[in-house]
């Protein structure tokens, strides 16, 4: 169905979108201008929509977590978060890759995995031109060139820091007396 100009009076000057309601139009324009008029009083983070601010405050700044895990007692602020967590206990992996059959607990992890089949690696290191499927992998890689070691050990008296989170996790096991096997 085409949008008749008479029924869609608000036209975005930046893209092709049109709106019936001025409130929707104003919210959309903010995505182009970067205006974020709704600010969290607690942490200062700003938002385009008041509903996003309310959701942020509920999820980030209240300790109201009425959904407990029946297996470990950890509590969550949303039923969906609890459901995702419980999959770890139950070993559920309902999302299967259509290319190779590998299963995942989260749809987002499966979608991320599927990029490995396409060969597309859009995140390119500006120093050495190595390519990555995920921006987070590029960020970790860039520490090699900069010498940055942003992952610091929180153990009292330990001043070690690491270029990647995996190396820190391996190091933390030393403090607990556990060792990771070489096959991991």
UniProtKB/TrEMBL annotation:
InterPro entries to which the protein is assigned, alphabetical: Znf_C2H2_sf (IPR036236), Znf_C2H2_type (IPR013087)
Residues spanning the signal sequence: none
Subcellular location: Nucleus
Superkingdom per UniProt: Eukaryota
Pfam families: zf-C2H2 (PF00096)
Major site of localization recorded for this protein: nucleus
GO molecular function: DNA-binding transcription factor activity, RNA polymerase II-specific; RNA polymerase II cis-regulatory region sequence-specific DNA binding; zinc ion binding
Presence of keyword DNA-binding: yes
Known function: May be involved in transcriptional regulation.
Family from the record: Belongs to the krueppel C2H2-type zinc-finger protein family.
Protein name: Zinc finger protein 648
Species this protein is from: Cyclopterus lumpus (Lumpsucker)
